[in-house]
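re: that chain from earlier
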Amino acid sequence: MKIGLRIPGAAGQMPFSEFCAWCKKNGFEAIDIGQITNEVVEAATGAGLTIGTADLPGTRDLISLNSAKVKAGAEAAKSAISAAAENGISIMFCVFVPDDASLGRAKNYEIWKENFPAVAEFAAEKGVSIAVEGWPGGGPEYPALGCTPEMWRAMFADCPNGFGLNYDPSHLVRIGIDHERALDEFAHKVLHVHAKDTVFDQEALYLHGNLGPVFRNPRGFGEDWWRYTIPGDGVVDWLKVVQRLEDESFDGIVSVELEDYRYWKDWPAQADGLRRSQSFLSNIVR
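^ sequence. v structure.
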């Protein structure tokens, strides 16, 4: 396995080649990118980094009742998949947030089932796999598809080729799903891992439960009774996670996704969070 990272916000303010050099100097071996361009690929590989994933465009449009949007989404996705294949990038990252959340999860799943498998099949033909992250989407609807074992079972039955998981236990933890059991069931589908944790605040739970605070805004990256944190500072047992992945012969990338308000104010704070994450994971990932 390799330790990688997803690019945090402030890193976008510096030249990408400079950020890649910083990553390599600080022990990271891989980087997840957004759009695939020659400049981005050359900067990453030139710094000695593996490209872990590239973002897959078009997924929102693929979950739409508008045929023009579906066509545009499929074209955008296939174009990015072709670019990935041409540049030796084997995994595309996505979330499935539907075009119209008001349709409900069941209806939006039927739309997904009609439109997405052909894109995944195209990816498989190109030697590329698509990894969905189980982010549930924003409240109060939490409309994103592919964030629960119930839906994963259906998705992998309806779309068996070119499609797998970006395993991020922080999302499972926050919505009350046993992340270790989910990994046991779906370890064979894991293509990529996001290293992010979740912590709960018992005082906040006492004050307002899971409804959130009334008289102030919740802290960033959470709803106060829960929040995301760097790996090792939450409830996830990362040693168990890595050992289970090893049991499945996973040899991919464990990628730090920095979403922790304590390490977000500016680039020095984000750099500190990334270093702390890498230091923690380096004792576990091998």
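Residues 17 and 43 are 5 Å apart (CA to CA).
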